[in-house]
Amino acid sequence: MKIALLTTDNREHYGDYANPRPHFGTAPEALLQGFAAMPELEVHVVSCLQKPAAAAPDKIAPNIFYHGLVVPKIGWMRTFYQGCIRATRAKLQEISPDIVHGQGTERDCAISAVLSGRPNVLTIHGNVRLVAQVNRVRPFSFYWLAARLETLTLPRTNGVVCITRYTQAAVESLAPRTWVVPNAVDGSFFDLRPAPDASAPPIGLCVGAICVRKNQNAFMRALDALAAERKFKIIFLGLVENSDYGREFQRLVAERPWCEH
Q: Which of these, 247, 251, 245, 170, lies nearest to 215 by C-alpha position?
């Protein structure tokens, strides 16, 4: 089976064009680790870049090929990714995959997959429409436009892979079909051999931006009853948004000796 994976090369995201190695988000990287262990698959990773990057290897693994497509800035959001769509479509005609996987609706990947002319599925992480709604974004701002592209894209794909039931509930009214599949996990996690101190209170780590949609404040309140019964510690790791919600978070952490940020 031949799969085309459309995903963001983080050299573009971080302006890391001098790096000769393409690198991706944690979920796509873990997914590629899994694909590398399945020699019966032929996988083609396709990413758009605004500038030429340092020469990358043609292969990430024996069965995984990499294609970096340079698309001038005019071909990105300012033209609703027309340049990315056309460059990706041309490359996919050359590759001729059995299925195209668009990784996320935040940028060009989903719209390019849907308009590829080939069977396609999407993975949704960001739920851009909900991000735009909760943040009350300005008309014609990036997230305002991205939310409208997401609304346009979801009904036109063959199906959406949802990493949680929450995401499934957010997209199932628009998507023709959905599946709940948790994110792939980096293989190094399976090599860990934890040896906690049985006499020490357990520690939980909560990673993510401190904001309304992550719901840390309600999480703390929900743990109050348990904290009254036993000892434990929760450590929050993430940037606090400059808002009433962020200030409430800081107050709740300060009031709870079992919380740390």
A: 245
The letter for the amino acid at 254 is A
Rg from Cα positions in the chain: 21
Alpha-carbon torsion (154, 69, 184, 120), positive or negative: positive
Rounded distance, CA 49 to CA 6, Å? 12
Q: Quote the pLDDT of residue 207.
A: 94
Which residues does the chain have with pLDDT short of 70?
Answer: none
Amino acid 196: pLDDT: 82
Q: What is the pLDDT of residue 7?
A: 97
Alpha-carbon span 87 to 144, nearest angstrom = 24
The first and second tokens of residue 148, run together, are 């409208």
Rounded Cα–Cα distance for residues 253 and 59 (Å): 47
H or E element, residue 13:
helix 10-13
What DSSP letter does each residue of 196-235 carry, written as one string?
--TTSPPEEEEES-BSGGGTHHHHHHHHHHHHTTS--EEE
Name the nearest CA neighbour of 157 among 107, 82, 211, 103: 103
Instruction: Give me the DSSP letters along 115-146.
Output: TTSS-EEEEESS-HHHHHHHHTPPTTSHHHHH
Q: Which of 42, 45, 47, 46 minimizes the C-alpha distance to 63?
A: 42
CA contacts within 13 A on the Cβ side of 242: 0
Pairing of strands 64-70, 59-61: antiparallel
Q: What is the predicted pLDDT for the residue at 162? A: 95
Mark out the alpha helices in 37-186 (DSSP H runs). 82-95, 109-114, 128-135, 142-153, 165-171
Q: Residue 5: its pLDDT value, please? A: 98
Q: Which residue has the tokens 């069977």?
A: 119
